[in-house]
Amino acid sequence: MSNGTESAVRLLILLAIGTMAGAAAFTHVHDLSVAHGQPDWIGWANAVAVELMAIYLGLEIRARRRAGRPVGLVGSLLVAFALLSLAAQVAEAEPSVWGWTVAAVPSLAFLALVKVVLSNAPATPSVDEPDQPTAYQYEEPATVEPVRPAEPMPSIAPAVVPPRAVVPSNRPHVVGIIQ
User: Fold this and answer.
1) Average pLDDT, integer, range 6-10
2) What is the spatial distance between Cα 60 and Cα 77, in angstroms, rounded to a whole number?
3) Which domain holds residue 101?
4) Domain for residue 108, yes or no?
5) Residue (of 12, 31, 9) closest to 20 by Cα position
6) Residue pair 51/61 in contact by the 8 Å Cβ criterion
7) What is the Cβ-side half-sphere exposure of residue 98, based on CA atoms within 13 angstroms?
8) How many domains does the chain divide into?
9) Coil, strand or helix at 133
10) How far apart are CA 167 and CA 161, in angstroms?
11) Within a domain: residue 162?
């Protein structure tokens, strides 16, 4: 099978599972919203918000990783929306272990596919590493001429004393004493 054919088959599988899982998840979120007093259109709005938010957050995580930005908050939100979707599907199921398991399958399958698709990193050309030495080499340091003693510094001028008019006459002329 050629790469093009394999990619086409993978895309068809992804679209089929995504469509069916999305339809099931949308329906469960809608039905649960309506069953708990929301009008029909708000049920659909809730379904769109919950399901598409999970997809958007997955895409946002991928973009942030490429940019080297933190993904903590976005990842937490993704988990929250995925759990909300899963809870809606389980809540609509027959109250048994198998009922809950079967109801959770579309959501889990869709989340798994989103994770697989979004975790595929685009192929980037490898960067050639610089040549590394095969063995440690020690080079003798170059001979250094002895340092000549520095010439003495010229004498420092005496401290500058402010003119007499600056210092009030009723104060002593000793620096550092404040009365």
Assistant:
1) 87
2) 11
3) 23-119
4) yes
5) 12
6) no
7) 0
8) 1
9) coil
10) 10
11) no
Cβ-contact 46, 29 below 8 angstroms: yes
**In this structure, is residue 3 part of a structural domain?**
no
- pLDDT-wise least confident of 17-31, 42-56, 117-131: 117-131
Report pLDDT digits (tens) over 92-109. Answer: 888 899 998 988 888 788
Distances (CA, A) of 128 to 121, 125, 131, 132, 153: 19, 9, 9, 11, 54
- Structural tokens at position 27: 């329906």
Can you give the pTM of this predicted structure?
0.57
Question: Residue 35: which of 111, 93, 77, 121 has the closest Cα?
Answer: 93
Cα separation, 26 vs 89, whole angstroms:
9
Residues 6+ apart with CB under 8 A from 154: none
- Take residue 92 and report the two structure tokens written for it: 């609509």
Amino acid at site 98: W
Residue 71 lies in a domain: yes
Element (H, E) at 22: helix 3-35
39 pLDDT band (50/70/90 cuts)? very high
Question: Is the Cβ–Cβ distance between 50 and 81 less than 8 Å?
Answer: yes
Cα of 135 vs its chain's centroid, Å? 40
